[in-house]
């Protein structure tokens, strides 16, 4: 009797299943829920605040500053309603604060990878359309971990170095000679990343490249890429260089 009573209680506690519901399959894996946009923005804000403590005050300043301006304008312009000022000022103030956070978050993301192996490759991964970027370095010095990344765009071929100028010069010269033999009429630009004299900080690398003067058409860019790809470039990546791990999340920085 005790056993039958216990089984009856267990059956009563078991949730009832609708007639049209399918029975759950054994071993079925639950889909992992992606974090919502609000949670993403909160995480971005926390990450940014760790590297830029002033971001909180700057965001508040922009938010309330925009509301104040909107209130003043609404009181000076008919129908002189402060409610209209709030209805306009609050969304605009929130938008301004989010835009500021996006810019500061991008700077914080670059600050995290600055000086780390593979930082130049991570920055190149955020290039806009029109550039062809190979995530694998074009030239590597396994002993010093100096690397040369290559990007192809309307400005021609751009070699982006990572390492001291004097030490990486040999890699650049060798790669330039190799490219000149097969593409003698294509412009080759060298950009050195770092904080030394004549070097470009990681955070300004893509901006620098997008300002380069166009030399090739879209069709020519594709042809140059195919010509280089036909040569093959299978180089071992030194330990510690992983562009994927160092890559800044620009979409998250925008709250997308």
Molecular structure report:
With about 260 residues, this protein is of the alpha+beta class. About 50% of the residues lie in helices and about 10% in strands. It has ten helices and five strands; from the N terminus they run αααααββββαβαααα. It has helices at about 1-15, 35-50, 55-75, 80-115, 120-125, 165-180, 205-210, 220-230, 245, 250-255, and strands at about 130-135, 140, 145-155, 155-160, 190-195. Strands 1, 2, 3, 4 and 5 form a five-stranded mixed beta sheet that branches. Helix 3 (about 55-75) runs antiparallel to helix 4. The radius of gyration is 28 Å and the shape is elongated. The protein starts with a helix and ends with a helix. The relative contact order is 0.13. The model is unreliable at about 1-5, about 5-10, about 235-245 and about 250-255 (pLDDT under 50).
């Amino acid at each position: 009797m005790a056993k039958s009573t216990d089984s009856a209680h267990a059956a009563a506690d078991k949730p009832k299943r609708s007639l049209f519901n399918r029975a759950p399959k054994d071993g079925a894996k639950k889909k992992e829920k992606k974090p919502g946009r609000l949670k993403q923005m909160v995480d971005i804000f926390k990450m940014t605040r760790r590297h830029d403590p002033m971001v909180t005050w700057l965001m508040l300043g922009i938010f309330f500053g925009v509301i104040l301006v909107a209130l003043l304008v609404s009181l000076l312009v008919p129908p002189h309603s402060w409610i209209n000022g709030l209805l306009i000022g609050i969304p605009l103030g929130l938008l301004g604060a989010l835009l500021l956070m996006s810019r500061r978050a991008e700077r914080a993301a670059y600050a995290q990878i600055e000086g780390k192996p593979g930082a130049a490759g991570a920055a190149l991964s955020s290039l806009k359309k029109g550039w062809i970027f190979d995530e694998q370095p074009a030239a590597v010095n396994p002993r010093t971990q100096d690397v040369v990344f290559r990007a192809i765009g309307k400005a021609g071929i751009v070699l982006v170095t990572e390492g001291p100028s004097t030490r990486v010069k040999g890699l650049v010269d060798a790669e330039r000679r190799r490219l000149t033999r097969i593409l003698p009429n294509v412009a080759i630009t060298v950009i050195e990343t770092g904080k030394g004299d004549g070097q470009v900080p990681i955070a300004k690398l893509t901006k620098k490249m997008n300002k380069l003067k166009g030399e090739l058409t879209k069709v020519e860019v594709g042809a140059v890429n195919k010509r280089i790809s036909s040569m093959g470039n299978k180089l071992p990546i030194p330990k510690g260089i992983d562009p994927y791990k160092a890559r800044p999340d620009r979409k998250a920085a925008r709250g997308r």
